[in-house]
Every structure is written in C-alpha cells, then in structure tokens.
Amino acid sequence: MSLTQDTLFTRIIRREIPADIVYEDNLAIAFRDINPQAPVHILVVPKEPIAQLSDAESQNHALMGHLLLTVKRVAAQLGLENGYRVVINNGADGGQTVPHLHLHLLGGRPLLWPPG
User: Fold this and answer.
1) Are 70 and 22 in contact (CB under 8 A)?
2) Is 102 designated active site?
3) Given 3-state DSSP classes, what are the helix, strand and coil percentages for the chain, each rounded to the nearest 5?
4) How far apart are alpha carbons 33 and 64 in whole angstroms?
C-alpha cells in the first residue's frame, strides 16, 4: 500500500483539521484519538508518509526508533507510570483504517489480554 493521497493524518499534520495535539517535533506528532478505547488514547504519527508498518524500509530504522521513544516520552508526560499498551495495526485485516502508519498509545486503566 503506498501513500498517494491525503489522509486524515496528513491533513492534521498540515493543520487543515484540528486535533488535540499533546506532542510534536520535526519527525512526529501525537494527538488524542477522537474515538478513544481507553482513558488515555494517543496516536503517534510520523510526519513522513509511510502507509503502513509493512511499507517501512531499512532507511526508516531511525524514524521507527524515534516513534517508540516518542511513545515513551508522551506516556511519561501523561503520567502513565503504571503501564500502557502500544499497538500498530497493519493493513485491513490488522484493523488499520487510515493508510498512514500510526502507533496507538493506550493507558489509564488495566488493559485485558488478549485484545480484539
């Protein structure tokens, strides 16, 4: 899947659509999910348009690490010291609904296993 069209996330990055942004740097943006599945539900999105995890290449390794460290930073910022879950949906069968790579940061309550 290639990212050839504007997505909801590219429009948020360009500030064409409002979002409750909790963190931003030159590589990523993090904002509250509009349909939260936990008391804390943040989406961490790379500014580079990668459609899904399976499209990431070896040249994206620094960005991929940066995304995980951004999750850690945002979790600390939001006081999730008791733990949290990080989810990446990949493709339609994986539950991905927006064709732009993003990490879900979920917390604020005990999370059950298995999910979904």
Assistant:
1) no
2) yes
3) 30, 20, 50
4) 20
Angstrom distance (rounded) from CA 10 to CA 23: 16
Amino acid at 94: G
Report residue 106 as tokens.
Answer: 């979920």
Residue 110 exposed, middle or buried by CB count within 10 Å (0-12, 13-18, 19+): exposed
2-16 tens-digit pLDDT: 444 689 999 999 999
Pairing relationship of beta strands 84-87 and 21-24 according to DSSP bridges: unpaired
Choose, from 61, 66, 100, 102, the residue flagged as catalytic.
102
Residue 101 to residue 43: CA distance in whole angstroms? 10
Cα gap 7→85, rounded to integer Å:
25
pLDDT digits (tens, 9 = 90+) for 77-98: 999 999 999 999 999 999 999 9
